[in-house]
Amino acid sequence: MGRKRKASESEAEDAFEKEKENEEYRNKQQQKKKAGEIVPSMIRNKERRSEVHAKLKHQKKVEKRKKIQARDAAEKRALELGEEPQPRSVPRTIENTRELDETVCKPDDEELFAGNDADEFSVVLKREGTPKVLITTARFNSTRGPAFISELLSVIPNAHYYKRGTYDLKKIVEYAKNKDFTSIIVVHTNRREPDALLIMGVPDGPTAHFKLSKLVLRKDIKNHGNPTSHKPELVLTNFTTRLGHRIGRLIQSIFPQDPNFRGRRVVTFHNQRDFIFFRHHRYIFESKESKENNSEGKKAKDAKLAKAPQEKVVARLQECGPRFTLKLISLQHGTFDTKGGEYEWVHKRNASPRVSDTLYAFLPNLYVSRKWTQAEGGFSCNLLWNIALNCLFRGLEAFFGEEGWYLGTRC
């Protein structure tokens, strides 16, 4: 009840602030009308309205430039007098207005670093063993899946592709243990498009299930480059929380810890607002000549004093592909297990629950298709059809094995 009250109070405050802003905007418009200023919304002719809008926009830009020049001049004057310049105002953004997370890791957290020495990835990250990755697909593969897998093989060193066939995922895990693989990646496809990744540590886990979206293959990237066989450098950014630290170490265990810097390859996983953006680049350093255009240099023209050009080192990037976005759905202890597995973290939706969602909570391992259950007033024929499908899939699970249906997708 307390959370609902807090939520209702915050909603009321937001509504009050919006009304206040709208009133201020109306008052400003009325003041402009009284002062005789032309407001573009008052003009009915479209061409005339666009001209007035362009003029007002240009005036605002000129005023902003003048403010910046006056601020820079004031800062320069203060520095010349030996005074501290006035601090600049920090813009309000989504990143600096987020609520502070209590699970953010601190650099002096001894418990965290002690746990790193004993976790599942310590053998690979301490360079006591080389990472060896097995890549496979779901049982029902698509046309775009193999192209994505071939590009993953070019990104991840020492990765091997095995055709899935009719094998259960538990049998694949046993095979990977016997062949000394350190990680398993399962690419799931839906409607001829890869839509999920299952990354599993071998032999002790953990298992991370990601939603995959906005996939762009190498051939679709303009002016793309071709990667070499060198071991890439790995860049992980914003994996600062406890969960992010664990996911970062899981991703880190896939790649070797001794990159070849001569290859100039870099693989980036950038975490922002709980989305992980993947990029793959090649880089090169170039030296360019830069001349200083100062007022002193202009005055020195009369004295025929030409300044020598200075060399400036510039880095250029060329994207090699692929490009995609990941979102963590769940993190499970150990290897893949739908029945007896314990989950470290599961993504929860913030939307209000529907009648069908409450029924799904009482039916475990239910194969859910949201497009079939659009009726929200109570029982529907589609929901009863889903219940019948659930019974059918449980029978198939008992017949084929214990793999089951995982989070609405078959792995």
From TrEMBL:
| GO molecular function terms noted in the UniProt entry | rRNA primary transcript binding
- State where composition is biased (Basic residues): 55-68
Please note every region of biased composition (Basic and acidic residues).
15-27, 44-54, 69-80
Which InterPro entries has this protein been placed in? Brix, IMP4/RPF1
Q: Please indicate which superkingdom the organism of origin belongs to.
A: Eukaryota
Which residue range or ranges hold the Brix domain? Answer: 131-337
Q: In the UniProt record, which is one GO cellular component term? A: nucleolus
Disordered: region residues: 1-90
The GO biological-process annotations, alphabetized, read as: maturation of 5.8S rRNA; maturation of LSU-rRNA
Q: What Gene3D superfamilies does the record point to?
A: Probable brix-domain ribosomal biogenesis protein (3.40.50.10480)
Spell out the protein name for this chain. Answer: Brix domain-containing protein
